[in-house]
Protein: 3-hydroxyacyl-CoA dehydrogenase
Amino acid sequence: MTQTSIIGWERDGDIVVLTIDDPAASANTMSDEFFGSLTATIDRLEEERESVRGVVLTSAKKTFFAGGNLDDLIATTPQDGPRWVESCNSVKRQLRRLETLGIPVVSAINGAALGGGLELALATHHRIACAQGVVVGLPEVGLGLLPAAGGIVRTVRLLGLQRALSDVLLSGKRFRPREALELGLVHEVVPSVEDLVPTAKAWLETDPDPVQPWDVKGYTIPGGTPADPAVAAHLPLLTAQLRAKSKGAPAPAPLAILAAAVEGAQVDFDSAGLIETRYFVPLVTGQIAKNMIQSAFFDIQTVQSGASRPAVGTKYKAKKVGILGAGMMGAALAYVCARAGLEVVLKDLTLAAAARGKGYAEALEAKAVARGATTAEKSAQLLHRITATASREDFAGVDFVVEAVFEDAALKQRVFQEIQDIVEPNAVLGSNTSTLPITELAEGVHRQQDFIGIHFFSPVDKMPLVEIITGKNTAPETLAKVFDFTQQIGKVPIVVNDSRGFFTSRVIMTFLDEAVAAVGEGVDPAIIEQAGAQAGYPAPPLQLLDELTLTLPRKIRHEKRIALEAAGGAWTAHGSEAVADKMIDEFARPGRSSGRGFYDYDKAGKRLGLWSGLRDAFAAGSATIPFRDLQERMLFAEAIETVRCFDEGVLTSVADANIGSLYGIGFPAWTGGVMQYINGYDGGLPGFVARARELEERYGARFTPPESLVAKAALGESYR
Ligand code: NAI
Structure:
């Protein structure tokens, strides 16, 4: 009889309390040691079954059980397939033993039970969650995986195919205890952690039957199996919905989940488990899951932990934020800051304009009150924190300035000059410019060390990313303050050095340029849009460009050209330029805001269809290039431009590049971010370089792989 270190065994009369506590880790995860411990614990329960009335399973860690070990998952290679088959099936066998021992087992869920944590709890007969600090769910789909410790088999049998799939397995949603109770994932919710074990014991006192619903004689899957005509009729719809959602982009996990659930619902419990494993192995040994785990866990953690924050000063908290310009960005930013508890002064040219800006917060709050998401009192307090003004004197006491006036360098400098002597002596002076070089803007203020770029994304209340741009003279203390401020308002900061377009705007332009150039080459625009969507971009390129308007990239390009030529450089025209010029100057179709762009729009701004005139204007449809080339021109253009950003010192952190590209500019999620795309490309860096050379040969020097990349590839390294 082993008493293992991971699952503690404590007897209280005829009840055994098992406490999971991995001393070697901060969270309980699936490891060989845990598995050994689980097996030994079940052996012991079997031996002592005569004297055990029931079992309580709980955890000594903050999380109940975290599931798969991420380091292990990310290091998996295709050769590990057989090992995964063996380990998934062994875990399933042990969990099956636990639920069929003939002893009632209750999970006392004291913290997050996500993925493997919930799968473990689902193999027990009763689940009690604490109302505080608990979330449950099967988020594997978001990591390109599926729950492979019986999660699909059990949720389908517990909730029925339809609900298990839409609510839990395909949504990857994390449920709070009350929601989990409503859904049927847990049976009871108790107010506090202290209530868990006593409530579990009380349940055991009722002498419950130690039988899972699916092991009761005569059990049928709720809602029916795929053999039932009603279910069968609904299933093709699910497949169609998944395909519509992915728009043809690589998304193997949802389809694998659907198949494992449907096939598993037609066979016995154990066979369903084997099917689940069979669908899991290609996912776990494939590249997409590794990409998604890398970004969703490792890179985001690196970014959030402050790896790019200089280690100066204590943690900063802004008190009073002054926002210059109450337009689209300023108004939304005022709302986000007030929501985070900050005092906000929102200034525009006139009081009426500033008040209109505040109206953004008022409208959103009114909606939140109406749907019960906040109270009228809290909402009034929030709105009270925003002072709309046209007077610079109201900037007295401001310790953090964000400027969001029109994109005009002279105007930006002027508005800073107006307030720089009124705000606190060392207030941060931040500009939300999306393209203007920070160092040049800083030249307009006395305190260049306090000047910095803080680039938000629209809509500010929804987009999590903030790109912080340091100018030549920005002090490390200023950067540290801004980093802390972005976290204070609940955003994700990445840090880049000054450059025209910084990182995000500069890189996204290369994606759009490829699409526009292809129009000029005579490719059918519908195919171009399809290529973007199937590559996994959230919005097809021409559609996105219409939103931005074609004039904006032209202005940026023009400024870039002037700067380059002033520095003695020679400008190489991109194929997109002539197309954009023609669209703007000849056809007066600059984009959606004017009702005409690559697409037609109705009076209300609703997109109708691609402009039929494109065919005559650009011989569109007269040329075909391989579909894969079209997709990879977009992906490679962005990836290569990002490498150039590293070469020029604009970027210094791979995690920042990955997270910035995913959160800021819609680089396809399955890639794990723009640098991870290079790492994970078929054949690794050498494979990427070889393919870049092919594209270079076919489409031009912009695809020439940068020397630093070629050198890294030759060394067998990847971007870390
Ligand atoms: P907007 O045109 O909606 O708002 C600009 C506001 O500044 C207007 O309300 C205008 O009255 C005000 N303004 C002009 N002169 C002023 C002065 N002297 N004092 C006070 N207010 C003055 O522009 P939007 O879209 O909000 O953009 C603002 C800045 O944010 C620009 O630099 C833009 O490049 C940048 N940005 C915009 C993004 C977007 O998606 N629209 C994304 C990221 C950055």
